[in-house]
């Protein structure tokens, strides 16, 4: 039993040591998780694509709903983003991925009440984000991001999977 535990611990340690980040040119990764917002808890999913060394572009969709003062609302967010990854210039270990960037987003705000003014707030917006990922292996990691914008205003916590 001790030999089996030692073998499993060795494989896990080897997996941590070989994690690679950030996304390489031509690589794709899937991100999904939950956000923080003053208007419900967003659920999001998106893809990032490596366009050059240390540069990625991505798309993301989010959904949230909430009730307040007797009315229900839902918000659908669509976003495109671009990020610069700081690992090389800051000599950050490869199991980490730190980035910052900007996004353009569109959201659709629906409500079932007389508060139609909220629905008029639907539209385009600009956001900024800063975030990081920790990779447990070459393909799987966790992500944390903070920023502004209307797709997941506040922050996000989720998983990342590289293809």
Describe the secondary-structure layout.
Blueprint: H1 2-17, E1 28-36, E2 43-52, E3 55-68, E4 71-85, H2 87-90, E5 96-111, H3 116-119, E6 123-135, E7 140-148, E8 154-162
Antiparallel strand pairs: 1-2, 1-8, 2-3, 3-4, 4-5, 5-6, 6-7, 7-8
Protein name: Outer membrane protein beta-barrel domain-containing protein
Keywords: Signal
Signal peptide: 1-21
Give a verbal description of the structure.
Helix content is 15%, strand content 58%. It has 3 helices and 8 strands, in the order αββββαβαβββ. The chain is elongated, with a radius of gyration of 19 Å. It has 163 residues and is mainly beta. It has one domain: Porin (Beta Barrel). Strands 1-2-3-4-5-6-7-8 form an 8-stranded antiparallel β-barrel.
Low-confidence stretches: 4-19
Strand arrangement across the biggest beta sheet: 1-2-3-4-5-6-7-8
Instruction: List how many beta strands DSSP finds.
Output: 8
Label the CATH architecture.
Answer: Beta Barrel
Number of H- or I-type helical stretches: 3
């Amino acid at each position: 039993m001790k030999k089996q535990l030692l073998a499993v611990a060795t494989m896990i340690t080897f997996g941590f040591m070989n994690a690679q980040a950030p996304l390489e040119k031509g690589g794709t990764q899937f991100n999904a998780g939950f956000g923080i917002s003053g208007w419900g808890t967003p659920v999001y999913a998106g893809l990032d694509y490596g366009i050059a060394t240390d540069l990625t572009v991505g798309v993301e969709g989010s959904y949230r709903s909430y009730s307040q003062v007797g009315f229900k609302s839902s918000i659908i967010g669509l976003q495109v983003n671009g990020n610069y990854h700081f690992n090389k210039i800051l000599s950050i270990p490869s199991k980490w991925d730190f980035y910052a960037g900007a996004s353009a987003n569109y959201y659709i705000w629906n409500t079932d009440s007389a508060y139609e003014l909220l629905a008029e707030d639907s539209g385009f917006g600009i956001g900024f984000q800063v975030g990081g990922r920790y990779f447990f292996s070459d393909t799987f990691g966790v992500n944390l991001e903070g920023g502004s914008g209307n797709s997941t205003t506040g922050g996000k916590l989720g998983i990342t999977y590289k293809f």
